[in-house]
Amino acid sequence: MSTAYIVDAIRTPTGKKKGSLAGMHPADLGAHVISAIVARGGFDPAAVDDVVWGCVDAIGPQAGNIGRSCWLAAGLPESVPGVTIDRQCGSSQQAIHFAAQGVMSGTQDLVLAGGVQNMNAIPISGAMYAGQAYGFETPFSTSPAWNVRYGAEEVNQIYAAEKIAERWDISREDMERFALESNERAEAAIDSGRFDREIVAIGDFAKDETVRRGSNLERMATLPPVREGGRITAGVSSQIADGAAAVLIASDAAVKDHGLKPRARIHHLTVRGDSPIMMLTAPIPATRHALERTGLKLSDIDLVEINEAFASVALAWAKELGADLSKVNVNGGAIALGHPLGATGAKLMTTLLHELERTGGRYGLQTMCEGGGLANVTIIERL
């Protein structure tokens, strides 16, 4: 089996709700990182075997195979194909998996993975299905077979986040302390320039604009819960955001043929499922599975990026697995830095790679909850 190497990983700065990227077409947003990663690599773009791109609920300007559109909007060869992946929030992490699997299988040598999401252009509802904003019902509500299996129980990410907080006995105060630390870590990372190497500026827009500067526990305590009587507030939730990210995956042959320098290798790939009603718990069994398959312990992992869809998700994962939170989301997470759905998987991988290089760590683990009760886990080894 061929080794799959990460050659490069970059991202845009993340735009906030009604922020700097709100008016940018998703194809142009994705084209920006694609153009940059090709230019940085110095290889013939016609050598790319495929563009595997993540995007959630690709409708409106994100429809029509946005992965292909991003490549073409970048002015690159028409001979290179593209495909768009929707594994909900894990879409671009799954894109990385498919790219790596293509290389590991020996059927491809150079694959560009990544994702894009303009959440300002395509609103996502509380149940996280964009079609609801256009008058469609949830994908489940009209399925007789679904209703036979799961009944009328609510399928909603806020509901799931609340149920997780209840099951793992995570208080609102616990979540607010976690969210505050996410903001403080992100502020420190931005102000010290830790993200500068991984971000490709768009004009004068060069730094993430999502951080809630000036956050404090007193202010967070005044926020109303999203659901009456609940624990989840906007302050402990990921933010609506826009962005794109790209990761270049190469085989041994491509590294040699194109004079590329690998920065990490893909050590392990996992995707697992859990209850679609609890929806956000799958990172727990997925991480367990990945560690069992690799023979690693969580203590062997130098850095973890787990998507902060909600504070309860990350805290339940940490509590269940006994994780050391000093190694988790060390530069802040989606509560502070935003969650541009289809781009987040590649965005987190980009940050994980650069932080491993900055700190000299060996192993990095990335995981995230995904709609439908799914989770990907990727373990990389820095070279």
Automatic annotation (TrEMBL):
It is an enzyme of class 2 (transferase). The keyword NADP does not apply. It holds the Pfam family Thiolase_N. Residues 260-382 form the Thiolase C-terminal domain. Residues 5-252 form the Thiolase N-terminal domain. Gene3D superfamilies: 3.40.47.10. Keywords: Acyltransferase, Transferase. GO terms for molecular function: acetyl-CoA C-acetyltransferase activity. InterPro entries: Thiolase, Thiolase-like, Thiolase_C, Thiolase_CS, Thiolase_N. Its EC number is 2.3.1.9. Belongs to the thiolase-like superfamily. Thiolase family. This is Acetyl-CoA C-acetyltransferase.
